[in-house]
Amino acid sequence: MLGDQRGQASVELVAAVPVALLAGLAAWQLALLGHAAWLTAHAARAAARADAVGRSPEPAARSVLPHSLEGGLLVNRSGRHVRVRVRVPLPLRGRSGVPITARSSLGGRP
Question: Is residue 1 part of a domain?
Fold first, then answer.
């Protein structure tokens, strides 16, 4: 019969599942990037606090980051500012990851 609708829901489900999975993966990566940006800003503040009292900023930044973000950590002190950069590993971007940078200053040493 030409107007038979049996099996249509199954076909629509099979077509919709990959789209839903891709949308979920994209949302997960955006959440991961947002969380990493928040953690990087926190690490920059910790590094600036350490620099303000005369301590090394890199161990302070490393102490507040999770182990997964410590591998790509780069801390630069420039004048009164401390800049922290991490590389966020993303499954869809390959092994290189996405760099996220934050800068902070508490008036540290000149």
Answer: no
